[in-house]
Amino acid sequence: MFSSGGELTPRQVAIQLLSRREYSRAELARKLQQKSFQPDDIAVCLDALEEQDLQSDERFAESFIRSRILRGQGVIRINGELRQRGVDQETSTTAFAKVEEREAVDWFELARDTLVRRFSSPGDTPKERAKRERFLASRGFDFEQIRYALSCL
Prior knowledge:
CATH topology of the largest domain: Arc Repressor Mutant, subunit A
Organism: Vreelandella andesensis
Low-confidence stretches: 1-5
GO cellular component, one term: cytoplasm
Function: Modulates RecA activity.
Helix content: over 70%
Structural class: mainly alpha
Domain RecX third three-helical: 106-150
Number of helices: 9
CATH architecture of the largest domain: Orthogonal Bundle
Number of domains: 3
GO biological process, one term: regulation of DNA repair
CATH superfamily of the largest domain: Winged helix-like DNA-binding domain superfamily/Winged helix DNA-binding domain
């Protein structure tokens, strides 16, 4: 299991990380760089893991999207976070389509549910209403979803 000298190989470190949760390729590369592995060794390791289907940006994106939906986050925010984690737009788009279909995601209802968990009324003053709009916008919901959610309170 260990290489000479008791040091872990890039593959061993990556497998340990992947045993806990899915990671994007870019996240794994960053983690391995922090452990001072050589860039060439990291690339070879990640290519092999991907080839063996032990690491998959598609699988990571789907898992990430599902977890963020459970937290009450919208498409805009989730997309931004996927980009920060090195997932390309094509992979994100495909993952969103799969999750939306499989989980029957209704972004309008998710916005409503998220708002209801935090606030009991749409707000009596423009200031209170704006606070609710900002809350949903910060969660990644678009204007139409926000308007719908507020109309339901």
